[in-house]
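Submission checklist for the structure archive. All mandatory fields must be present; incomplete records are returned to the submitter.

[x] Identifier: Cellulose synthase subunit BcsC
[x] Organism: Salmonella enterica I
[x] Residue count: 116
[x] Sequence attached
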Amino acid sequence: MIKAKQTVSGASLSGDQLSGKNVEDNWRVRWMTGYYYKVINENNRRVTVGLNNMIWHYDKDLSGYSLGQGGYYSPQEYLSFAVPVMWRQRTENWSWELGGSVSWSHSATVPCRVIR
C-alpha cells in the first residue's frame, strides 16, 4: 500500500476592482480557506472530511437588474462554513464517489439605489 499525505489545506486572499459598461465600478475582497483530512487513505478507497470557510465583502450591492446595476451577487457581508464528506472507492470494474456537505451561511446587503 502506498501511503500518501493525510491532510490537505489551502487558503486564498484576493482583492479585485470590477468595472463595466453602463454599470457602477465596484471592488471586492474575498478570503477562502479549506482543510481536508483523509480518514481512510488506501489505494482503492478514500474517505475525507473537511472544513471550509469563505468571507466576502463587496463595496456596493450591484445585484439588481435595473439600469446601472450589475446583476451579480455582491453582498457587503458574506460568511460561510461547510463540513464536506467524500467517499471514493474503485474495484476492478467499477469506481464511484459519494459526497455531501453540511453548511451554514450569513449574508447582508445595503439596499440598492433605484435610478429614476
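[x] Structure attached
Curator remark: The CA atoms of residues 15 and 94 lie 43 Å apart. The beta strands are 7-20, 23-42, 45-58, 77-90, 95-108.
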